[in-house]
Amino acid sequence: MLLTLTSTAAQASDLGYLLHKHPDRVQQFDLSFGSAFVHYPEATAERCTVALQIEVDSISLARRRGRRGDPGSIASYVNDRPYAAGSMLSVAIGRIFSTAMRGTCTARPELPDVRLPLRLHLPAVAARAGRGDEGGADLVERLFAPLGWSVEVGVSELAPGLGWGDSPYLDLTLTGDQRLADALSHLYVLLPVLDDAKHYHASMEEVDKLIRRGEGWLATHPERDLITRRYLAARRDWVDDALTRLDALDDRVEEAPTDEDAPPPPLKLRRLDAVLDALRDVDARSVADVGCGEGFYLRALLDDPRFTRILGLDVSARELDRAERKLGLERRSDQQRARISLKQSSVTYIDDDLSGFDAVLLVEVVEHIEPNRHDSLERSVFSAARPRHVVVTTPNVEHNHLFGMAPEELRHPDHRFEWTREEFRTWADGVASRTGYTVEYRPVGDEDPESGPPTQLALFTRIDERSHRG
């Protein structure tokens, strides 16, 4: 089993720093299923190649699994595991290149964020069909091409000269400009998906591994459901859990501008003003922004001293890291830093840290979550956390045609739906009646006489709070 990874970047031998493996040495690693070797066939300033070679001990692997199936069969000992890239290679990548996958490089801290011209070669890949999915080169293309890879697949005869047809194994080459951490994460997740099998007994921890290693790309991948199902061995409860967490990832319709000094889009500013006005109207002092992303609303809250306790909650650790950088917490006073905290969590899970706030923000969040999971959101926010107020914003689909959009087009590829004004009110009225809240509706943005505003806002108030204030 072999993987070679080649960089042709300027100072290509910097690959050794990123991988934390010195080009002048051959290193050996003991694995539960055999041994792994890392070495560099070439390492120059112009071109650097690292090879990860796995030698599988099929006999000890079969014996460790115990006696299963036909005791007279040699299938447990003679199979494709020693050479076909799959879960064993994935495990080896995760263990041997773990620091590189985390994007950590102490010696050269600027390197992990650099996109490198990379070439990945896997001479034997099993791309199996199954559960209604086509296998082969088409499956490889569907998995890797959306991630920015150029895919080249070679097929050879199974037994040249014997007329047995093509080999079921593919000679795969991927080329593209990628961060090394992303490239390794793509392989880590997608190799077991292609193989549609794992060599070890899977547990619920597989969900956490999938979410962690797929961060930044899996939530918006067009084959997300297929990847999740095959990676988690079609375990329904695990798949549902993973999809819920992926739905909670905050891929917003209006991304923050890449230029720090450029103002956000006008609608985003008007939405911010509307949300802040709602918070001031109810005299909220403690606010939790659920699905906070990179901290656009957190910055406005932190800059206003009336908000004395602020929580930013997001399912994506990467987004929380970006929020921390954009907020410049290291440059703020101790008093400001004491007012805010960031936490990784999901809006569809009950979280005790979400309790006790004057207000919870769900700004452009609900449309990213499948409707059949809205009951989990309702339970975690309105029933368990029970803030005094909840502010919800979501696109108004009736307004989309005024943006020049097609009738079935959504404002963001990760949106699961977009509500009309009536649909939004039906959902919000139902939540309010079931959980003991009243709800007030406010338009956001220029309101068209027929199509309404571009964004709709609902301000929920807990009934006992309303009685107390009255």
UniProtKB/TrEMBL annotation:
SUPFAM superfamilies hit by this protein? S-adenosyl-L-methionine-dependent methyltransferases
- Ranges for domain Hen1 N-terminal come to 1-246
In alphabetical order, the GO MF annotations are: metal ion binding; RNA binding; small RNA 2'-O-methyltransferase activity
**Which cofactors does it use?**
Mg(2+)
Query: Which intervals hold domain Methyltransferase type?
Result: 289-379
Keyword RNA-binding among UniProt keywords: yes
> Per the record, what are the reactions this protein catalyses?
small RNA 3'-end nucleotide + S-adenosyl-L-methionine = small RNA 3'-end 2'-O-methylnucleotide + S-adenosyl-L-homocysteine + H(+)
Q: Which domain of life is it from?
A: Bacteria
Q: Which family does it belong to?
A: Belongs to the methyltransferase superfamily. HEN1 family.
PANTHER family linked: HEN1 (PTHR21404), SMALL RNA 2'-O-METHYLTRANSFERASE (PTHR21404:SF3)
NCBIfam families reported for this sequence: bacter_Hen1 (TIGR04074)
- From the Swiss-Prot or TrEMBL record, give the protein name: Small RNA 2'-O-methyltransferase
Annotated organism of origin = Tessaracoccus flavescens
